[in-house]
Amino acid sequence: MKNIITLLSILFFIPGFSQSVKKEKLNEAKSFSDIVLGYPAALNHILDYASVNIQVSCEGKILSAQNNNDLLNAEQKNILSNADQCSDIEIKIKYSAQTLGTDGTIREMNFIVTVLPDKEAVFPGGPEEMTKYFKRTLIDKFANPIDPRKVGPARIKFSVNENGEVIDGKISNPSFDPKIDELLLEAINKMPKWKPAETAQGLKIKQHFNVSIPLGGC
């Protein structure tokens, strides 16, 4: 159980977790690999890119730009540097593999990367209080340790709006234990108000969270 509590703390508070990126990094990005966490540059040697399309919200308008390789062109760089904070960058890559035995079929990879706000939303009391909250509302509800052979990592989605309220909570990937999923969703939906995310100018904005929790331990 101690491992689970530690992981909850780490997963919720590591900057850039779950495919997110800071504006500064977007402004400096030269290739697709610079903005997608863990995307191996080595793939460029075995992929024949048909297209790389990037779509993002800029000042409330949805803009997109396309290229045919991993390098960002001028139009793609421009919309990335102007991307709205807390918006999702949608990346669609169409490719064929240049490896022995492949048939040249065009396949597709999709990624979503969220633009981090200047000031991220904060749970009241910070990481330690968040850990205590999940221990109280989830971990302590089980008399016996969770069996890692019977559950998988649960993925949850929720948003913190401009007033600090937690909204739109849902399980996007179940743990395979209905009781765990029920308690996790209840814990998300009953969280106290957060300090909302802000721009550098002090404008409060909605922030989205998409978090994976390995409830089976580590």
In the predicted model, the low-confidence regions spanning at least 5 consecutive residues are 1-17
Q: Which assembly state applies to the chains in this document?
A: single chain
Radius of gyration computed on alpha carbons = 20 Å
Strand count, sense and closure of the main sheet?
5 strands, mixed
Mean pLDDT: 82
Count of extended strands? 10
Beta-strand residue percentage? 25-35%
Helicity, in percent? 10-25%
Alpha-carbon distance between the two ends: 10 Å
Overall outline: flat
What is the overall number of helices? 5
Write out the strand line-up for the largest beta sheet, numbering strands in chain order. 1-5-4-2-3
| Strand and helix order | HEHEEHEEHEEHEEE
Which structural category fits the helices and strands? alpha+beta
